[in-house]
């Protein structure tokens, strides 16, 4: 119980720091790809896809996606959520996002052999 409170305090501190130092769009990207058990809200993903048509947001989106996909195995939930975001962006986002994914397909293909075991349970 004590460790849960410390963890929630740390999460609160990270969220506050992000809100003060990052743009609104970057905060939404972080929320969409955070290390949670469930996928991001559809409204959030839809908004990210719409903003991918703006060149500045496109650059931030792609940088964040490639950074998120390169995370360590213990952050597998974030990688899965990022792949889910990639799927939505391909379907609903700007064409240049799809072009970027095609040009960098090797970064996604390396995840085909992704394997992570946590406490004796295969997680991915």
How would you describe the overall organization of this protein?
With 124 residues, the protein is mainly α. 69% of the residues lie in helices and 3% in strands. It has helices at residues 2-21, 24-32, 42-51, 55-69, 76-92, 95-103, 105-109, and strands spanning 117-118, 121-122. Strands 1-2 form a two-stranded antiparallel sheet. The two termini are 28 Å apart. 16% of the residues are buried.
Which sequence of strands runs across the widest sheet?
1-2
Global mean pLDDT? 84
Looking at the structure, the CATH topology is Serine Threonine Protein Phosphatase 5, Tetratricopeptide repeat
CATH class: Mainly Alpha
| Count of distinct strands | 2
User: What is the annotated CATH architecture?
Assistant: Alpha Horseshoe
Largest sheet: 2 strands, antiparallel
What percent of the residues sit in helical stretches (DSSP H or I)? 55-70%
- The figure for the number of domains is 1
Which of globular, elongated, flat, extended, rod-shaped describes the shape? globular
Properties at a glance:
124 residues; mainly alpha; Serine Threonine Protein Phosphatase 5, Tetratricopeptide repeat; two-stranded antiparallel ribbon; 69% helix
Entry summary:
The chain is mainly alpha-helical and 124 residues long. Helices cover 69% and strands 3% of the residues.
Protein topology:
Layout (H helix, E strand, L loop, with lengths): L1 H20 L2 H9 L9 H10 L3 H15 L6 H17 L2 H9 L1 H5 L7 E2 L2 E2 L2
Antiparallel strand pairs: 1-2
């Amino acid at each position: 119980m004590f460790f849960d409170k410390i963890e929630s305090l740390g999460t609160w501190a990270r969220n506050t720091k992000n809100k003060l130092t990052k743009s609104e769009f970057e905060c939404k990207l972080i929320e969409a790809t955070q290390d949670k058990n469930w996928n991001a809200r559809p409204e959030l993903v839809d908004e990210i896809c719409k903003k991918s048509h703006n060149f500045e947001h496109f650059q931030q989106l792609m940088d964040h996606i490639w950074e998120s996909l390169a995370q360590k195995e213990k952050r597998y939930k974030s990688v899965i959520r990022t792949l889910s975001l990639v799927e939505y962006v391909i379907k609903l986002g700007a064409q240049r996002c799809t072009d970027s994914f095609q040009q960098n397909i090797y970064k996604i293909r390396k995840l085909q052999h992704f394997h992570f075991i946590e406490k004796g349970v295969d997680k991915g």
